[in-house]
Design a protein that fits this description.
Blueprint lengths: L3 E5 L2 E5 L3 H4 L3 H15 L3 H4 L9 H14 L5 H6 L4 H5 L6 H18 L3 H18 L15
Antiparallel strand pairs: 1-2
This protein binds protoporphyrin IX containing FE.
The site of protoporphyrin IX containing FE has 22 residues, from helix 4, helix 6, helix 7 and helix 8.
């Protein structure tokens, strides 16, 4: 049974196992999130958005749960946090082009560091680029609502 289809170098590829299984399970996502947060803790643009910038334990855990579940692992995010509704959950945070891009820099650095496999790297990169843009809630233009911090 084909469970994933993706594109690489102009070709359509299919896979019969989830990315979660192909990367070896939860440990990969724990390491990815650790690596991502190494970048976040040194990034003042992102750090000010967090409710507890000095203790990112929960933020790390929630992102790990979500990614493992999204890529075909156990439904641990839903069990602990409920329906992801990520766009709604990100509304309290100002995410303009700058924040989106800083987030992506750290995540794609982590992806490149942890994944030697071209196909997996491409799948993750395509997803994160699209999802980060989807979560952007400010255009970055002067016509944006004036109550956003700048
Ligand atoms: C691919 C894109 C992204 C994914 C998959 C993602 C995923 C998540 C998840 C699962 C949570 C935890 C939600 C909860 O449990 O209530 C979260 C929280 C958060 N995200 Fe994202 N996110 C993404 C992009 C972004 C971007 C672009 C920003 C802004 C730069 C951002 C900033 C935050 C902040 C500030 C929190 C709250 C953390 C806290 O204070 O605990 N996220 N994100």
């Amino acid at each position: 049974m084909i469970i994933q289809t993706f594109f690489l170098n102009g070709k359509t590829l299919t896979s019969t196992s989830s990315l979660f299984d192909r990367v070896g399970g939860i440990t990969f996502f724990e390491r990815l999130v650790d690596c991502f947060y190494e970048g976040v803790v040194g990034d003042p643009v992102l750090l000010v958005l967090y409710t507890e910038p000095t203790d990112l334990t929960k933020a790390r855990q929630h992102l790990t749960w979500f990614l493992a579940q999204y890529w075909g692992g156990p439904m641990i995010f839903n069990e602990n946090r409920g329906d992801p509704k990520l766009r709604m959950r990100h509304m309290p945070f100002h995410i303009g082009p700058l924040e989106r891009d800083r987030w992506l820099v750290h995540m794609l650095t982590a992806v490149n560091e942890l994944s030697q496999d071209d196909v997996i790297r491409t799948e993750l990169t395509n997803y994160f680029v699209k999802a980060a843009e989807h979560l952007r809630n400010d255009t970055g233009l002067p016509i944006s609502p004036s109550n956003y911090p700048r």
